[in-house]
Each structure stands twice: as C-alpha cells, then as structure tokens.
Amino acid sequence: MSTPQKTEFEKTPGWLDWYAGPSIPRFRLPAGAVDAHCHVFGPGEEFPFAPERKYTPCDASKEQLYALRDHLGFARNVIVQATCHGADNSAMVDAVQSSGGKARGVATVRPGVSEDELQRLHDAGVRGVRFNFVKRLVDVLPMDGLRQVADQIGPLGWHIVIYFESQELPGLADFFLGLPVPLVVDHMGRPDVTKDVDGPEFTGFLDLMRARDDIWCKVTCPERLTTTGPRALGGEQAAYRDVVPFAKRVVEEFPDRVLWGTDWPHPNLKDHMPDDGLLVDWIPSIATAEESQRKLLVDNPMRLYWPEEG
Ligand SMILES: O=C(O)c1cc(C(=O)O)oc(=O)c1
Question: What is the residue with the minimal CA distance to atom 13 of ligand 1?
C-alpha cells in the first residue's frame, strides 16, 4: 500500500512571513466587526499549493488566522481564496467550515464549474467568486469563460470580487459593468498613490463606483500601496499617510459600500511586513466618525456576507 506523499514547499526567495506578535490595537473595533479580506495558506502539508501558482508562501493556518481575529478584536472573517491555491478551494473551505459560522468565503472557480460544485461551496459558506486580472498572480482567463461563471452564480445570490491594477481599468470597465451580479473591488483598484487623488486615474475608478449602486470597494492594503509610509511598525500611530486621501475619499462618497480587512497574511509584500494591530489603528484615519466606522466594519460586511442576520 502506498502512503500519502509528504509535500515540502520551498518559499519564494525573499518571501516575507506574516508578523508574529502584533500589538493590541489602540482603536477599539466596534462589536461585531468583520475582517472582510484575509487568506489562509495551506498548511502546505495538508493543503498543497497549486501547481500553477506564481508564488510559494509560508504557511498561514486557520488556527493562526482565528487567533489573530481574537487578538485584534474582530468577530468574523471573510476568507478570500489565495491565488497560490489556484481553483482548489479546500484550505479556504476547511477554514470556513471550522469557524462555527464566524467566517464566509470567496472562491476561485474555473469556467465549466458544475452547478453541484457551486452548491457545495454555497453550503460550506462561500458567497462569492474572485476574478483576478493581476498578471503577476494568475494566467488571466478569457472574458467569455468568466461571463459564463457570472451567469451561473446569480441564482445563488453571490457577488464577484475583482482584483486588477489601476492601469488596466480602462480596458476592463465595460466588461465589469456588464456583469450581472454585485461587484466588490479589491484594494481600491490599486491606485498609484503618487498620483493626484483628483487626477484622471482615481477619478476613473470613482466613476466605476458611481456607474452602478451595487459596486463595493475594499479600502484595504495601505501597506501594499504606500510609497512613503511611514510603516505600521514600532508603535507608529500615523502609518501610510500617502494612502489616506484615497481611502478616505471612497469612504466618504460610498459609506454604505465599503469594506475593510487586514489582508493577513499579506502575500507578496516586498518592503516590510506590517504589525496588524497598527493596521487596525489606521482605520480611524480613513473612517473618522463612529457611524462610518460601524458601517465599514459591521453593517456593510454583514449585509453582503450574512444577509440572513439583517
Ligand atoms: O497583491 C497581491 O500579491 C495579492 C495576492 C493575493 C493572492 O495571491 O490571492 O491576494 C491579494 O489580496 C493580494
């Protein structure tokens, strides 16, 4: 009899592991706050990384994710399928199913996915699929295949999470606007924060948000978008100031369609790994009033991911 082969994965050279020992945030999250963008990686021995992956991460297990949730003061998570797992949703689904109802998932599926598989994912707690247009992360799929998936998920009440870089938006906007379900934009469409917040690029993104009232935005990843910092490390209470005007603008114009998440375990960061406690302390710089904080952290994610509790 053969025994299961032990898998061993070597991390991508230069890989930055998630930050152990994050601080306790000074900003007290409102009761019921949702970390609406985070991932699990493996562990690789139990949930092997996909052959088609573009990076090999460190492990980041569901237990570690849930420990961080409790440490930071979140009540729930939305776990987004990480590209290193391709369209094998096992690790994400296992994490969601072990959460006692405190997590929902966003899956990656391939065109041609069966109705049975979608229903299985739904029953496990998945409420959306992710379409990724970032070429360093995936082999971008043809639009008609994606359109087919979009048509299939409508009856389940799911949405599509879209990840793209700002310079690609002009070529993608018409496709997005033709999709028949709500859309959730990852990381504000990755603006170049060295450009003017009132300039044509970010205005193009805001125009996408204005074009339909069911397009949502994650005001996330200042640690990824920043160019001048300062970094959320060493007790810094005013981190990532260059990203604040962009996120604040979105929160102010679309208070009922914004989400926030840690992005733990922060795949592919090159410069530094943030202290997640200090990332939470960044929230009041972009959502300054108690009401907008409650919408961002509780009401909005609950409406999208746990509508039955509304
Ligand atoms: O910018 C990234 O590298 C990145 C990667 C992934 C993923 O690999 O799924 O997810 C993210 O939210 C961001």
Answer: 267
Q: Does the beta carbon of 267 lie inside 6 Å of ligand 1?
A: yes
Omega cis (within 30) before 230: yes
Angle (deg, nearest 10), helices 244-253 and 200-211: 30
pLDDT, mean of residues 160-171: 97
Q: What number does the ligand 1 atom closest to the CA of 220 have?
A: 12
Identify whether 276 is a catalytic site residue: no
For the stretch 219-243, pLDDT in tens is 999 999 999 999 999 999 999 999 9
> Is 262 close to ligand 1, i.e. is its CB under 6 Å away?
no
Calculate the average pLDDT of the chain: 96
Domain range 34-309, its CATH number among 3.30.420.40, 3.90.79.10, 3.40.50.2000, 3.20.20.140: 3.20.20.140
Tens of pLDDT along 17-36? 999 999 999 999 999 999 99
